[in-house]
UniProtKB/TrEMBL annotation:
<dbReference type="GO" id="GO:0032993">
    <property type="term" value="C:protein-DNA complex"/>
</dbReference>
<keyword id="KW-0804">Transcription</keyword>
<keyword id="KW-0597">Phosphoprotein</keyword>
<keyword id="KW-0902">Two-component regulatory system</keyword>
<feature type="modified residue" description="4-aspartylphosphate">
    <location>
        <position position="72"/>
    </location>
</feature>
<dbReference type="Pfam" id="PF00072">
    <property type="entry name" value="Response_reg"/>
</dbReference>
<dbReference type="InterPro" id="IPR011006">
    <property type="entry name" value="CheY-like_superfamily"/>
</dbReference>
<keyword id="KW-0238">DNA-binding</keyword>
<dbReference type="GO" id="GO:0005829">
    <property type="term" value="C:cytosol"/>
</dbReference>
<dbReference type="GO" id="GO:0000976">
    <property type="term" value="F:transcription cis-regulatory region binding"/>
</dbReference>
<dbReference type="InterPro" id="IPR047772">
    <property type="entry name" value="ActR_PrrA_rreg"/>
</dbReference>
<keyword id="KW-0805">Transcription regulation</keyword>
<dbReference type="GO" id="GO:0006355">
    <property type="term" value="P:regulation of DNA-templated transcription"/>
</dbReference>
<dbReference type="GO" id="GO:0000156">
    <property type="term" value="F:phosphorelay response regulator activity"/>
</dbReference>
<feature type="domain" description="Response regulatory">
    <location>
        <begin position="23"/>
        <end position="137"/>
    </location>
</feature>
<dbReference type="InterPro" id="IPR001789">
    <property type="entry name" value="Sig_transdc_resp-reg_receiver"/>
</dbReference>
<dbReference type="InterPro" id="IPR039420">
    <property type="entry name" value="WalR-like"/>
</dbReference>
Amino acid sequence: MTMQDSTDLPRDTSRVDSLEDKSLLLVDDDQPFLNRLGRAMERRGFEVRTASSVGEGLAEVRRAAPAFAVVDLRLEDGTGLDVVQALHGAREDARAVMLTGYGNITTAVAAVKLGAVDYLAKPADADDVEAALLARPDALPEPPENPMSADRVRWEHIQRVYELCGRNVSETARRLNMHRRTLQRILAKRSPR
């Protein structure tokens, strides 16, 4: 029996695992979730710092900008986009992932424009977070297990136009070439899966 040379073994090239700086900032106002995710990421070798507000997150970035960040979109004192923008301004190589319980294409695009590398819907587990943080910048993401349905894509588009119109139902209906009452019924319903 011969030993295989380590260079002959297949390697997962979609992840960056050999990092020197694994400092991680977690920003979320859901304290139990923040504690669970913090412990799970520490077990994966990250040096975790936590913050429960935009203000605390910005202070942590100013104190020492981490290599990685996981930031909730909606916090009690503002939006996590401010933390991502400050982090990217302080450290261009930092990799941030946005988390949200309110999946919305518009905010996902805004997060990426401000420097986030990925956008995950809650509840995201530590494996998903780690995969997003360590994904190679040039690697294509895995196809989603549960992609959005056509109804959900339509709903997301309507929500985006509604937000861009300043939440004005009449203007949104006009731009979408839709009857105002039909739009009101769609907006009153929960988002489709």
